[in-house]
Amino acid sequence: MASTAALIVAAGKGERAGGGVPKQFRRLGAWPLLRWSVDLFLRHPSISSVHVVVGDGQRELYDAAVQGITLPAPISGGAERQESVRKGLEALRALSPTHVLIHDAARPLATHTLIDRVLDALRAGAEAAIPMVSVADTLRRRTDDGNWQLVSRVGLHRAQTPQGFRFDRILEAHLANAKTQVTDDMAIAELAGLQVVATAGEESNLKVTAEEDFTIAERLLAAGESRTAMGYDAHRFAEGDHVWLCGVQIPHEKSLEGHSDADAGLHALTDAILGAIGAGDIGQHFPPTDQRWRGAPSWKFLDHAASLVRDRGGRIMHCDVTLICERPRIGPYREAMRARIAEILDLDISRVSVKATTTEGMGFTGRGEGLAAHAVATIVL
Ligand code: MG
Predict the structure, then answer these.
(1) What separation in Å is there between the alpha carbon of 166 and the centre of ligand 1?
(2) Interval 194-205: pLDDT, tens
(3) Distance separating alpha carbons of residues 291 and 92, to the nearest angstrom
(4) What spacing in Å lies between the alpha carbon of 78 and ligand 1's midpoint?
(5) CB-based burial, 223-247: b 16+ in 10 Å, e otherwise
(6) What's phi and psi for 323, nearest 5 deg?
(7) pLDDT tens for residues 43-100?
(8) Separation of 27 CA from ligand 1 center, angstroms?
(9) How far is the CA of 283 from the centre of ligand 1 (A)?
């Protein structure tokens, strides 16, 4: 059966974009730059495996960037991009995929539509498929004598990644042209005489290079449709010696009653996230009648809701939980709760808020019969 591997090149050493680390490990929005591409390819149904090439001494940065994701071990790159790609392709030889998509980690905004066009060209028989965009700006070349010479832009295009290839042919091409320095894999393909097909690129698929590119990319990432939804939950106190709230176990003279671990905070948040994508509520996904969820830890519910957001190509941007109870006291556990939610949702902690209030003795929470939680989640689709 035909298989397609994704090879993400993330071995650059350049720190000129700022931030004190090579740019592929610098944070862009919620994640390090590299992780956007890893996530993009992992979510694509036609990609059979995702491999990353990193530079010497970058293993720790890499591990932090892909924390929580199961990937094959990273491949050690070389001094130049071309050598890194060649080493990556050689490492894939054992898998011998039918096709390989080679992508620069510096392009975090590639899309599944872009990938699909490359894959369609490969499936139609192309040996190489390269996304291209036309050049709109007027071009001038700076000459040695300090003048600006007009360059006709007619027919000029910019080559982007991911560039797709028949695996055996591009491996062979890289091995045969290891000594000729070029800037992308299309050039290698041409040197080896591969038949190259151009596909439509995307203006938004920018290559993050300079400091200002991070700002532009962050704006583009946040530019989807923003949706905000709420969730609410309440549980009754019963005999016991601890409660679970927002994924944290808190010693208390009572426990909360419920089919699962009765974590009202995570239940409210799960409902808020499901609400933002119109995916029903927690009871539909995890019916209390289902024995599988008896005593279940509620992080599983939250994790499931987050995976549904990802499946739709969305991202959770922010969430806010308010716990309502007289006791236990939430303050001492607030930061642990934020950290736990951030971990489950794979968000930076600055995007997670946990608050608490009492109802000054009024109502069921005031009488200590139970506690309640409100949550709001914002996602971008
Ligand atoms: Mg509940």
Answers:
(1) 51
(2) 999 999 999 999
(3) 43
(4) 52
(5) eeeebebebebbbebeeeeebbbbb
(6) -95, 135
(7) 899 999 999 999 999 999 999 999 889 999 999 999 999 999 999 999 999 999 999 9
(8) 35
(9) 9
- What mean pLDDT comes out for the span 159-182? 96
How far does the centroid of ligand 1 lie from the alpha carbon of residue 290, in Å? Answer: 14
Could you tell me the distance, in angstroms and rounded to a whole number, from the CA of residue 270 to the centre of ligand 1?
10
Q: Which two tokens stand for residue 306?
A: 């987050």
Ligand 1 center from residue 251 Cα (angstroms): 19
Q: Answer yes or no: are the C-beta atoms of 350 and 320 closer than 8 Å.
A: no
pLDDT over 70 (residue 17): no
Centroid of ligand 1 to alpha carbon of 227 (angstroms): 23
- Ligand 1 centre distance from Cα of residue 349 (Å): 24
How is residue 257 written in tokens? 């009653």
Res 139 pLDDT > 90? yes
Lowest mean pLDDT among 198-202, 270-274, 288-292: 288-292
